[in-house]
Amino acid sequence: MEQISIIDSKHYVDQEVQIKGWVANKRSSGKIAFLELRDGSAFFQGVVLKNEVGDELFDQAIHLNQETSVVITGTIQEDTRSKFGYEIHVTGIEVLGTSEDYPITPKEHGTDFLMDHRHLWLRSSKQHAIMLVRNELIRATYEFFNDKGFVNIDSPILTAVAGENTTDLFHIDYFDEDAYLAQTGQLHAEAGAMAFGNVFTFGPTFRAEKSKTRRHLTEFWMVEPEMAFVHQEESLKIQEEYVSYLVQSVLDHCDYALDVLDRDRETLEKYTKLPYPRISYDEAVELLQKNDFDVEWGVDFGSPEETFIANQYEQPVFIVNYPKEIKPFYMPTHPEREDIVLCADLIAPEGYGEIIGGSERESDYETLRQNIIDFGLDVKDYEWYLDLRRYGSVSTSGFGLGLERAVTWITGTKHIRESIPFPRLLNRLTP
Ligand code: 4AD
Ligand code: MG
Predict the structure, then answer these.
(1) Residue 102 domain flag
(2) Mind naming one GO cellular-component term on file for this protein (predicted)?
(3) Domain final residue pick, 63, 97, 131
(4) Is the CB of 256 within 6 Å of ligand 1?
(5) Which ligand lies nearest to the CA atom of residue 224 in the structure?
(6) Does 275 sit behind a cis peptide bond, omega within 30 degrees of 0 on the bond before it?
(7) Most exposed of 159, 170, 218, 285 (fewest Cβ within 10 Å)?
(8) Closest residue to atom 24 of ligand 1, CA basis
(9) Among 97, 131, 150, where does a domain finish?
(10) 122 and 81 in one domain?
(11) 221 C-alpha to center of ligand 1: Å?
(12) Which ligand is nearest to the CA of 356?
């Protein structure tokens, strides 16, 4: 008898198969029992009919506890009432591992409780679906950049330099030296671009964010492409093409997850249309002021401002050329304006906020060195980075996409903590 995954059920209609999985839930009346089964690929229903299987097996079925691991034997049938479309008519149950008092019951639980049980919460259908989408975004990322000839360069997690700012750093003792957990892989990616032309890093990054918001993690994964000989306009084209590709890949490969999440496909379709609109920081400030926002030129936008701007469009929107004073040291000044830099943030629709931050990079040795000093950083920590401008400097551009921000947006999840298997937050280091 063939052992199959639930997700492949459609190929086995009317066939007797075996499925190894867990009992996620069950309900029964006198003569019929419904087992909600999951096997890691999907969830579906097992039907146990008393008059078909006999008293003994029926009795075993109705006494299965939640999260008992089982080998189920049965016949796959179409199930027109469920979105999934198939079910199994059970003819045999073998228990592999028992389960007593599983803490996450089908009733409602508070967030703290669920987060304390994240190692178990991951088994539930919504969390499972979100992780399937996350997996697809990772797969599509490698595919997109490899197809374009980008080389994957891993950047270090332990660093001696601040990549973005000095306020959100996690400090660690590195033998007798000060070290930090990487805020970004960008500076090392820039070295990679000088060696390989087009590169991308993909790894965990860390920010000691003291804020409790639905958009911030202290540990998150970032995709950071870096491209030699590339200027802002070309970089924006790659960014929008990449984001559109991510959304399209989810539409193409995550049917099951989108059903579970009840994510509207027509909405997602709109996000695959290119180009994405662009608005300058100046224009954004004007628009906000006209609409009674209390913003001055020179401040960074918070989430209400970003959401308002995003709501003017049906696609993600680029806000380009922010004030120099609110952006990191490596961004170059606009050729015609001293007070702004060549950069862009991509703001997701529906209030999900910034999903990409990127810029051109200052390529002039003296200017970059002065920026490092002006930002209060120690030049000697950045000598290696300055070498990239000493030896054959060229313009490079790059950007960072926050994976969990993208997952949260594309899945339509309320809080970013559900978009990573084990979230790290201000007050959360376990499980
Ligand atoms: O805008 P950020 O800080 O840009 C950089 O780190 C650049 N060095 C990237 C580059 O040019 N290579 O961060 C990039 C993205 C943000 O747009 C956001 O999606 C995500 O990283 N991000 C966070 N995601 C979750 N939690 C946080 N605390 C995040 N901070 C940034
Ligand atoms: Mg940013």
Answers:
(1) no
(2) cytoplasm
(3) 97
(4) no
(5) 1
(6) yes
(7) 170
(8) 402
(9) 97
(10) no
(11) 9
(12) 1
Task: List for the chain the helix, strand, coil content (%; round to 5).
Answer: 35, 30, 35
Q: Is 188 in the pocket of ligand 1 (CB under 6 A)?
A: no
Count how many Cα atoms sit within 13 Å of the Cα of residue 76 in the half-sphere of its side chain. 21
Query: Which of the ligands is closest to the CA of residue 185?
Result: 1
Tell me the C-alpha distance between 89 and 200, whole Å: 48
259, 224: one domain: yes
Q: 278 exposed, middle or buried (CB, 10 Å; 0-12, 13-18, 19+)?
A: middle
- Of the residues 137, 145, 354, 361, which should be mutated to test ligand 1's pocket, given the most ligand atoms within 8 Å of the CB? 354
Compute, in angstroms, the gap from residue 329 CA to the centroid of ligand 2: 13
- Could you report the predicted ipTM of this complex, rounded to two decimals? 0.99
CA 366 to chain centroid: 37
**Does one domain contain both 228 and 303?**
yes
Q: Do 66 and 194 reside in the same domain of the chain?
A: no
Output the pLDDT for position 166: 86
- Intervals of the chain under pLDDT 50: none
pLDDT digits (tens, 9 = 90+) for 214-238: 999 999 999 999 999 999 999 999 9
Its pTM surpasses 0.95: yes
In total, how many domains does the chain have? Answer: 2
Ligand 1 touching residue 162 (CB < 6 A): no
Same domain, 85 and 139: no
Give distance in angstroms: CA of 403 to centre of ligand 1.
Answer: 9
Spacing, Cα 391 to ligand 2 middle (Å): 29
Task: Give 171 Cα–ligand 1 centroid separation in angstroms.
Answer: 19
Q: Which structural domain, as residue segments, surrounds residue 380? A: 118-419
Q: What is the Cα–Cα distance from 313 to 350, expressed in whole angstroms?
A: 10
Q: What is the reported pLDDT for 264?
A: 98
Q: How far is ligand 2, taken at its centre, from the CA of residue 357, in Å?
A: 4
Domain presence at residue 333: yes
- Examine the domain organization and report whether 165 and 271 are in the same domain: yes
Q: What gap in Å lies between CA 300 and CA 306, rounded to an integer?
A: 10
Query: Can you give the pLDDT at residue 355?
Result: 98
- CA 274/CA 4 separation, integer angstroms: 40
Residue 425 lies in a domain: no
